[in-house]
Amino acid sequence: QPDIIHTHDNALLGNQLIRLRRQVRVPMVASCHCLPQFILSYLPEGRIVERIITLTSWRYLVWHLNYFDAVVFPTQVHRELIVDRGLTAPSTAISNGVDLSRFCPDDSRAAEFERQQRLPPGPRLLFVGRMCRDKCIDLIIRAMPEIRKHQPAHLLLAGRGDEKELLQSLTHELGLTSCVHFLGYVPDEDLPDLYRSADLFAIAATCEVQSIPTLEALVSGLPAVAVNAGALPELVQDGVNGYLVPPGDSVAFGRAVGRLLDDPKQARAFGRTSQKIGRRHAEIRTFRAFND
Fold first, then answer.
1. 30, β-bridge pairs
2. From CA 35, how far away is CA 116, in angstroms rounded?
3. Cβ pair 257, 225 in contact under 8 A
4. Within 10 Å of residue 187's Cβ, how many Cβ atoms?
C-alpha cells in the first residue's frame, strides 16, 4: 500500500506498471532520461531505417509517458522536446543534482593525486563516462592533432565500456598513444581529485539529456568544450564558461580546446563561472524538488 509508485524505466518495467493501473489505484510517476537518438547511435546507418526507428521510438516514448500521472525530466530542454512531440501528462524538470561537498576546487590535493596516479604533465583534457558509441569519444581523440598545434596537451579518458578497444586502435592508428591515456575505471572516491587534476572538460555526445560528469566537472571549477546538441547547452554556455561546437566536427572541437589552452586567464574565468552554473544543480535542491 504505497503512497506513490515511481519508475525510472521507460521500457519493460514501466510497461508492467501501465498494465497494473486498473488494479492499483496509486499515483504513478515516471522519470525519463532517454532520447530516441540514443537508439540510433547503435543502429546501421541508412535514411530509411533511421526514419522508421525515429518515428516509432518517438511515438512509443510519448505514448508510454502519457499513461503516468506525472513525468520528471532532468532538464528543461529534454522536457520541451517530449512536450513538442505530444506529451500531455503533467511534467516538470528536476536536475540530477551534484554533491557540492565532494566536487569542488581544492588545489592542495591535486598535486599528491597527480603523483600517485602518475598522470602526464599538463595541460590535461578530461572526459569521464562510458566508453560507448553514443558518447562520440572518437571525435575528441580525432581532435587531438589540432589541439596539439596549440599546446602539448594530454587527453585523459576515464571509464570503461564496449568501445574501449576500438578507441585504443584509433589512437594507435593516429599515432596518438603518447598523448591519449586510457585510465579505465576510476573509483568514485577518486573522481573529485581527478577533476581537480584536469585543465578542462570535454564531451562530444549528441544525445545527452543532462550529463552528470559535466555537472561534476563544472562545480570542480573546470571550463568545458562540448558539442551544441541535446541538453549540453544548459550547462556549457558558449563564451561564458566554455565553448560549444557543431556535432561531428573534430577540427572545430580541437580549435575550441586550443583557444582555451592558449588563454589560461580566460580559462580560469570560465572555470569560476562554471562553478556558479554548477551550484544551481546542488543535490539538496534536487531532494527538495522531489519532496515538493
1. 7, 71
2. 39
3. yes
4. 7
Q: What burial letters (b/e) apply to 205-217, b meaning 16+ CB within 10 Å?
A: bbbbbbbbbbbbb
Strands (E), 15-166: 28-31, 70-73, 91-93, 124-128, 154-158
C-alpha cell at 208: 545527452
The pLDDT of 116-130, averaged and rounded, is 92
Locate 27 and state its grid cell. 499515483
* CA atoms in the 13 A half-sphere facing the CB of 275: 15
Residue 282 CA from chain centroid, whole number: 16
Please write the tens of the pLDDT for every residue from 150-208: 999 999 999 999 999 999 999 999 999 999 999 999 999 999 999 999 999 999 999 89
CA dist 66 → 31, 91, 207, 221, 289 (Å): 12, 10, 22, 39, 21
Among positive and negative, which fits the CA dihedral 20, 209, 83, 89?
positive
Residue 159 makes CB contacts below 8 A (sequence gap 6+) with 127, 128, 129, 130, 131, 183, 184, 185, 186
Q: How far is Cα 97 from Cα 52, in angstroms, rounded to an integer?
A: 35
User: Is 56 in contact with 85 (CB distance < 8 Å)?
Assistant: no
SS (H, E, C) 68-93: CCEEEECCHHHHHHHHHCCCCCCEEE
Cα separation, 116 vs 119, whole angstroms? 8
Q: CB of 241 within 8 A of CB of 277?
A: yes
Q: Is the four-CA dihedral 232, 238, 243, 248 of positive or negative sign? A: positive
